[in-house]
């Protein structure tokens, strides 16, 4: 996130109004709700975990055990079970 000078984008009247509340300080303007991105969409994290979880489920259906998958992916047995159950519900 970069900074944009208010003088470059806002009318003088708006700047004067803002200065009544906050003069010379930094001000964060949040995105509109409809423009918000959900967790992991911007940097690809969500897609990475989606692919990983699909791989785990596929390997499970091919016969790998929960213990083997937990060791392979450095996750707990409980996490592997949760991923498998979530993937089962998605693939119904």
UniProtKB/TrEMBL annotation:
<dbReference type="InterPro" id="IPR009057">
    <property type="entry name" value="Homeodomain-like_sf"/>
</dbReference>
<protein>
    <recommendedName>
        <fullName>Mor transcription activator family protein</fullName>
    </recommendedName>
</protein>
<dbReference type="InterPro" id="IPR049739">
    <property type="entry name" value="YraL-like"/>
</dbReference>
<dbReference type="InterPro" id="IPR052411">
    <property type="entry name" value="c-mor_Regulatory_Protein"/>
</dbReference>
């Amino acid at each position: 996130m970069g900074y944009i000078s208010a003088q470059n984008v806002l009318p003088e009247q708006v700047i004067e109004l803002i200065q009544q509340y906050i003069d010379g300080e930094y001000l964060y303007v949040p995105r509109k709700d409809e423009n918000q991105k959900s967790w992991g969409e911007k940097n690809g994290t969500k897609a990475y975990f989606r692919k990983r979880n699909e791989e785990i489920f596929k390997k499970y259906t091919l016969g790998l055990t929960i213990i083997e998958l937990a060791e392979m992916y450095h996750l707990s047995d409980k996490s592997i079970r949760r991923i498998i159950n979530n993937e089962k519900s998605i693939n119904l």
